[in-house]
Amino acid sequence: MHGCFPNYNCAWKLYPLYYFIIFNVTMGSTIMALDSPSSSHSGHDNTLCQGIKLKFVAFDFDGTCTTKDTTGLYYKATDQYRDGPENVTQTLDKKWGELGKTYFEGHTATISKLLQETPDPIHGLNIKSLKEFLSEVYEFDSSCTKRVDDSKLLAGVTKEGIKQVSKLVELRPGCTSLLNKLDLPLHVISFNWSEDLIKNVISLKHVEVSANDFQYYNNGSRYVGRKLSSPQDKENEFIKLMQRHAEIDGLTVFIGDSIGDLLPLLKANIGIVIGNNLELRKVAAAFGIKLVPLTDFHSSCLIVGNRCQEEMTSCATRQHGKLYATNSWDEIGSLLIGPHYESDS
C-alpha cells in the first residue's frame, strides 16, 4: 500500500470507504506457463515443487496489483470534474481532501484504540478475535461511507470517465506479465468501486473480476452498487471459489496487501502478502499471524521435493496462521512457475 492523500502517509487500506477517500482459477492443473501472451497453452513442470497443483489463484487489486490505490481517481471521472472550469475542479479537490483528512484521522484512532485493547497473542492465531476486530473497524468505515455518499462527489461518474482515468493507473512491475503466463483460473476479489476500471487496467480476458461497480443512468452514475464491502464479504467470495472448484485437486492461493485481505489470505492454502503495509504487520502480530519470507516456501519445497503438495496441504495457511511476504510479483512467479520464470516487464 502506498501514498494516499497529499501530505498524508497512509500505510494501509481497508474497505470501500477507503476507496472513496484515498488518493492517488474451472480445471485444476499442474502449474504451467504460456510461451508468450499470444501463444497457445504449453505446460511446464514446476521445477521448484515437482507435481504441485493449484485449484486457482485469487488476488486483491489496489495496492496488490497497483502501486497506489485508485479510489482518488473516481471523482475525477465525473463530468463535473472533467468538463468543469478550474475553480470547480479546485473546489472538488478541496472537498475530497477534507473527507480524506477526516477519515484518515478517525480510522487511525480507531485502529490504535482497538489494538491497545487486544491482549497479547499466547496460543497462536486467534481468528475469532481477528474477525471481531475487523468488524469493529468496518463499523467505523461504514459510518463514514454515508458522509461520502452525501457529498455527491461520485455522482455523475461515466463509463468514458472511467476509461480515461484507467490510463493513469500504475501497475506493480511484473504483475500482468505473470498473470498472462499462468495457465489456470485467475480471480480478482476487490473492494474497488469499478469492475470496469479493473478490467481496463489488467486487460486480460481470462481474469475474472469480483468487485463493486457504479450503477449508470442516463450516461452517469447515481451510486455505487456494493457487493464487496467488508473483509467477511471478501472471505465469503473466496469460499465461493473454493466451493466452485471443490472437485478439483490442488491448492488455493490468495495474494493481498492490507488488513482487508487478511481473511482470504488466511483461508487460502498459500497466503501471500505483497508490499510493506505496516498496519497489516501490526494487526498480524496482534492476532498471532506469522509473516515469513516467501523464500521460506521455496526452501521448504526444495527440502521436501515431490512431497511439496502433501506438505503444503497439511500445513495450510488457515491452520497455522502463517503468511508469506514478498515485495515482488517476479518472486511470486518464481514460486508458481519455477526458477526458470522470467518476467516480460
From TrEMBL:
The highest taxon in the source lineage is Eukaryota
Q: Please give the start and end residues of each transmembrane region.
A: 15-34
- Name of this protein: Uncharacterized protein
Keyword field: Membrane, Transmembrane, Transmembrane helix
Instruction: Cite the SUPFAM superfamilies for this sequence.
Output: HAD-like (SSF56784)
InterPro entries xref list: HAD-like_hydrolase_phosphatase, HAD-like_sf, HAD_sf
Which species? Answer: Nematostella vectensis (Starlet sea anemone)
